[in-house]
Amino acid sequence: MTLDDLQPRQRAEIVSVDWDMLAPDEGKRLRALGIDAGARVAIAHRGIFAGRDPIALMVGRMTVALRRAHARAMTVMTL
């Protein structure tokens, strides 16, 4: 399952990230925020418009806005 398939408030762990799907500078920013394999995450809420962008992602005690295209690059395992 990818991160964009996760239901709100459902907790998961990022198993892998397909860094080739992301631009190098985007990948670097996500790693700096702690969004990488092994991170425990949950979706706080989704955008209200048609694309449901952005996704508010909880990483530890931090909430980060993330595009669905970035979330599709991440494989997660529910906890």
From TrEMBL:
**Per the record's keyword annotation, is Iron included, yes or no?**
yes
Q: Name one GO molecular function term.
A: transition metal ion binding
InterPro entries, sorted: Fe-transptr_FeoA-like, FeoA_core_dom, Transcriptional_repressor_C
* Keyword tags: Iron
Ferrous iron transporter FeoA-like domain location is 1-78
- Protein name from the UniProt record: Ferrous iron transport protein A
- Name the species this protein comes from: Croceibacterium xixiisoli
